[in-house]
UniProtKB/TrEMBL annotation:
Record-annotated Hypervirulence associated protein TUDOR domain positions: 9-67
Annotated region (Disordered), positions in chain: 1-70
Alphabetical list of InterPro entries matching this protein: Hva1_TUDOR
Source domain of life: Bacteria
Protein's name according to its UniProt entry: DUF2945 domain-containing protein
Source organism per UniProt: Brevundimonas vitisensis
Classification lineage: Bacteria, Pseudomonadati, Pseudomonadota, Alphaproteobacteria, Caulobacterales
Segments of skewed composition (Basic residues): 25-35
C-alpha cells in the first residue's frame, strides 16, 4: 500500500494479535506525536496513519504497509 493512496475516511483493515480489524483513516501523521502514551515516530519520509477501529472506536497509528484498503 503506498502512502499516497490513503486519505481520511478510507476504510482499511489491519492484522493484530486477535486477528484482523477494520476501521477508517482519521489522518496522515507526518511528524512525531504521542497517542495514548505511545510515541509515534512519524515523519514526512516515514508517515503513519491514525485509524479508528469500527468495533471499539479506539485510535491507533499504523504504518502504510500494515494497512489494506477495503
Amino acid at each position: 500500500m503506498t502512502n499516497k493512496s490513503l486519505k481520511p475516511g478510507d476504510t482499511v483493515s489491519w492484522a493484530h494479535s486477535q486477528g484482523r480489524s477494520t476501521g477508517k483513516v482519521v489522518r496522515k501523521l507526518t511528524k512525531p506525536t504521542h497517542i495514548k502514551g505511545h510515541e509515534v515516530a512519524a515523519s514526512p519520509d516515514n508517515p503513519e496513519y491514525l485509524v479508528k477501529s469500527s468495533k471499539t472506536g479506539a485510535e491507533a497509528a499504523h504504518k502504510p504497509s500494515a494497512l489494506t484498503k477495503r
